Structure formats: C-alpha cells, structure tokens
Amino acid sequence: MPLLLLLLLLPSPLHPHPICEVSKVASHLEVNCDKRNLTVLPPDLPKDTTILHLSENLLYTFSLATLMPYTRLTQLNLDRCELTKLHVDGTLPVLGTLDLSHNQLQSLPLLGQTLPALTVLDVSFNRLTSLPLGALRGLGELQELYLKGNELKTLPPGLLTPTPKLEKLSLANNNLTELPAGLLNGLENLDTLLLQENSLYTIPKGFFGSHLLPFAFLHGNPWLCNCEILYFRRWLQDNAENVYVWKQGVDVKAMTSNVASVQCDNSDKFPVYEYPGKGCPTLGDEGDTDLYDYYPEEDTEGDKVRATRTVAKFPTKPPSLQPLHSPATV
C-alpha cells in the first residue's frame, strides 16, 4: 500500500512526440519544434504545453486559433518562420510572450482581444512600414515592445496610450524622421528607450517629460543642431549618465554611458549636448517661453522671484537592470 501511494505521487513520465522534443522544467512543459521544416502546427502536442518553440520553420502563414486547445500556453516563439501573415482568431488567455522577430510581416495584426495577458511582444526585423491606429489596444499588460529593424517612418498618435505598464521600448534601426510629442505620456515605468539608427533630426519640446529614464540609446541619428534642438540639448546635459551606445551582445549593466555619441549631423559631428546655440533666444527673451518646456520653475529668494531649472536627479550610475528579453534583439 505505501509503495502504491508513492507511485501515485510521482510525476507521470513524459510521452515522446514523433516530431518535437518534450521536456519539463519545474512546472513548465516545454515543447521544442525548432528547425523541423514544418509548414503547419504538428498534431498531438501535449495539451498542457506552457512553452512552445516553432522557430526556423517554413510556416509562411499561421493562425493563433490553432493553439486554443493549449490553455496553459504562456510563451510562443515564431521567429524566423518566413511568416507573411498572422491570423489572430480566438483567445489565448495566459500567453505572456510572443516572439515574431525575423519574419516577413508587412503589417501588425491587432492582438489585444486574442492576447490580453501579453507582456512581451517582439516584432523586430520584419517589414513593417507603418502601424495602424489602435495597434496596441487591449494590451494593457504589455511591459516590453520590440520593433527594431523594420521600415517605420512615422508612428500613429496615441500608439502607447493602451500600454501604461511598458518598461522597455525599442524603435531602433527604422526610418523614423519624427516622433509624436506625447509618445511617452503616461509611461511611468519606462526605463529603457532605444531610438538609435533612425533618421531623427530633433526631439519635440517636452518629449521626455519627467520620466526617470535610466537607459536611453539615441546615437546614429542625423540630429540637426539649430535653435529647435535646445530642449533636447538641455535634456542631454541633465541626463548625461543615462545615455548609452548600443553594443550587440553586451548586457546593459556592463555598458558605459556616452552622451557624446549623440552628435550634430550639420556641424562636423559636434556633440549635441555641447551645441552652443549662438543666436538662439535665451531664457527670459520675449517669445521664447516654449523653448524650455518642463524645466522652468519659480523660486523665491527674499523679495525677488527668479526662474530656475528643476530636473529629476539621477544616480551617477544607473541601477542594475537586466532586460526580461534577450538583449540580442532589442
């Protein structure tokens, strides 16, 4: 009798799958179907699969509805599958991570109703040229968004409004020429912003607001140093320790800040933070009150009122931070 009880308590052996590798790590049942030349989802996968790898197959089109029987699925890797179309029928209520990187997607489907629990979305290195209005509607749990290496030229207004929990945003290596002024509004948890290697020439006044942004990557843009750059120049001066150069394969905790990497394209690569602004209005000149948005504050000293800058102070070294997603794709 004790032996029978012991046998009942032991975990049941994993049944081998004819195509994919099945393993169990802690409470997660992981199914690896990578590099199997699959064109469709393999049949008879374990119904309690929590992590599913389908990378480097030849799926071309894929419907998330085919995964509805797998109600415990929390992570899905569909990278490098030559995907040109993703159908978003049905609902996967607990899926938290979706990797669609290195495919051929030309449009981003509306994922909110299908993936309400999504926290990490990677659509890097596809062929996106634009994003629809409301592209992220319904993704209120999203914490990491990776759009690196696409062909985006502009962003729709209110893109990130539905994602107030966002912590990491990568828009690197696109063709962006401008940014919506309120893009970061409401993103109180944002700690990493990657905008390097675009075609940006200025930053809208007030763009950063009061965000405590420990990691900003802004190099490789053709910054135009004129009077319109003064807001960005001052932000760089006040946040010099938080501006970095992206290095592939290097953990952000091991990177060294380099504010001089943000350079004027029209002034022989002069650092933007050192731009002298000759001939530009200075604080107090008539009609220049909008040049220094989010910086002025009144301060009383005796009977006089004088204007002073007030900025959030950061530690000389940013706090340790390990991206939840692989740093290879951000």
Characterise the protein shown here.
The protein has 330 residues and is mainly beta. The chain has 2 domains: 23-154 and 162-179, Alpha-Beta Horseshoe (Leucine-rich repeat, LRR (right-handed beta-alpha superhelix)), CATH 3.80.10.10; 191-285, Ribonuclease Inhibitor (Leucine-rich repeat, LRR (right-handed beta-alpha superhelix), Alpha-Beta Horseshoe). Helix content is 5%, strand content 16%. The chain has helices at 2-9, 230-238, and strands at 21-25, 28-32, 51-53, 61-63, 75-77, 85-87, 97-99, 120-122, 144-146, 168-170, 192-194, 215-217, 243-244, 296-301, 304-309. The strands form 3 sheets. An 11-stranded mixed beta sheet has the order 1-2-3-5-7-8-9-10-11-12-13, with no helix packed on it. Strand 14 and strand 15 form a beta hairpin. The protein starts with a helix and ends in a 21-residue tail after the last strand.
How would the blueprint of this fold be written?
Elements: H1 2-9, E1 21-25, E2 28-32, E3 51-53, E4 61-63, E5 75-77, E6 85-87, E7 97-99, E8 120-122, E9 144-146, E10 168-170, E11 192-194, E12 215-217, H2 230-238, E13 243-244, E14 296-301, E15 304-309
Parallel strand pairs: 2-3, 3-5, 4-6, 5-7, 7-8, 8-9, 9-10, 10-11, 11-12, 12-13
Antiparallel strand pairs: 1-2, 14-15
